[in-house]
């Protein structure tokens, strides 16, 4: 999964107005495997401020709008053959490739330890973020 977040505390836009907060954009590609590579499904999720607005589902074969914001984007991407073809082939070029390239990640069965802790921002007196720590999920031979 890929998470892209742009956070610039105290940054001023070109117009000189102070920002009111920050925005988060995430693109999360996901491969689902059933019985190895016998049955694979590719999902490509686009998320703005923790809300998925459009996604591609290889079982459907096109981009699907999840919100009104996603409708014009899905329509645009579905109307462009090269964009749609690239997403459709991701089952083989992305999922099948990664399954073969990283067998140690596919075969791991060790349950991770998860700890979520409040985290204080350096510029604000109150706790305004959570930190998630995940450990112990590697195969035993790596530990």
TrEMBL record:
Keywords: Adaptive immunity, Disulfide bond, Glycoprotein, Immunity, Membrane, MHC II, Transmembrane, Transmembrane helix. GO terms for biological process: adaptive immune response; antigen processing and presentation of peptide or polysaccharide antigen via MHC class II. It holds the Pfam family MHC_II_beta. Gene3D superfamilies: Class II Histocompatibility Antigen, M Beta Chain, Chain B, domain 1, Immunoglobulins. It is a single-pass type I membrane protein. Residues 29-103 form the MHC class II beta chain N-terminal domain. It is found in: Membrane. The keyword Ligase does not apply. This is MHC class II antigen B. Signal peptide: none annotated. GO terms for cellular component: MHC class II protein complex. PANTHER family: HLA CLASS II HISTOCOMPATIBILITY ANTIGEN, DRB1 BETA CHAIN, MHC CLASS II-RELATED. It comes from Anser cygnoides (Swan goose).
């Amino acid at each position: 999964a890929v998470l892209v977040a742009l956070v610039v505390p105290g940054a001023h836009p070109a117009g000189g107005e102070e920002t009111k907060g920050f925005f988060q954009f995430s693109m999360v590609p996901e491969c689902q495997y059933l019985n190895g590579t016998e049955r694979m499904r590719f999902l490509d999720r686009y998320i703005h401020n923790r809300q998925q607005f459009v996604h591609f589902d290889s079982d459907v074969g096109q981009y699907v709008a999840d919100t009104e914001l996603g409708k014009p984007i899905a329509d645009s991407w579905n109307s462009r053959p090269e964009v749609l073809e690239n997403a459709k082939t991701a089952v083989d070029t992305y999922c099948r490739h990664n399954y073969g390239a990283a067998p140690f990640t596919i075969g791991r069965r060790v349950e991770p330890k998860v700890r979520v802790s409040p985290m204080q921002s350096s510029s604000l007196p109150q706790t305004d973020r959570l930190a998630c720590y995940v450990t112990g999920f590697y195969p035993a031979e790596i530990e």
